[in-house]
Structure formats: C-alpha cells, structure tokens
Amino acid sequence: MNVFGIKLSKVDSHLDNNIRLTKKVFPEETKAMEFGLALMFRLNDIINEALTIYKNKPEIVANSNLFGRNRQLLLNAYFCLICASYGSCFVKRKFK
C-alpha cells in the first residue's frame, strides 16, 4: 500500500487498516473526539493570549498547564481508539 507515494510497511498497513475499520465501526465516537481535539487546539490561542495579559496570576498559569495536559490525554486516547491498539485486539492479530 502507498500513502503519499511512500510504500507502507506491514505494521503501517495494519495500523492504516485499523484506523479505517475503527472509523467505520465507531463513527460517532471518533467524530466527537475529533471535534473535541479541534476545539482544544483552537483554544490554545486564547490561552496563550491570556497568559500574556495575566502573567502575574499563578492560577492562570496553573490552569493553562492543566489544560495542556488534558488536551494531550485526549489526543493519546484518540490515538489508541483510532489505531485499535487497546487490549488484546492489537496483540493477537497476526501480520501476513
């Protein structure tokens, strides 16, 4: 299989197939997480602007750090969902 003119390895092809199947089986879940991630990444600009205005307020800095951590956790959860690499589903499937 080729993506952007690059031949994928067996592992990459397997991940690509898992992504396609997961989006097909869980369309609502993947769309909801993609919407949440897009919103969180857009909010980064607002948070960075608030940090420049209120740099003397430690609660703003703490909240921005927690927000960044939560965004990263959602991104990791989305990646695990979309690649179907949770539980034994990914481990038991054999490559050809």
Structure explained in plain terms:
- This protein is mainly alpha-helical and 96 residues long.
- The protein has a domain at 46-82.
- The protein contains 4 helices and 2 strands.
- The protein has a two-stranded antiparallel sheet with strand order 1-2.
- A hairpin with a 2-residue loop joins β1 (2-3) and β2.
- α1 (10-25) packs across α2 and α2 (27-53) packs antiparallel against α3 (58-82).
- The longest helix is centred in the middle third of the chain and has 27 residues, at 27-53.
Number of helices: 4
Gyration radius (Cα, Å) is: 18 Å
Distance between the termini: 14 Å
Give the overall pLDDT as a whole number.
Answer: 76
DSSP strand content: under 5%
Please mark out the parts with pLDDT under 50 across 5 or more consecutive residues, or reply none.
Answer: none
- Shape designation: elongated
Write the layout of secondary structure elements.
Layout: E1 2-3, E2 6-7, H1 10-25, H2 27-53, H3 58-82, H4 89-92
Quick description:
Helices cover 75% and strands 4% of the residues. By secondary structure, it is mainly alpha-helical. Strands 1-2 form a two-stranded antiparallel ribbon.
How would you describe this structure in keywords?
single chain; 96 residues; mainly alpha; two-stranded antiparallel sheet; 4 helices; 75% helix; elongated
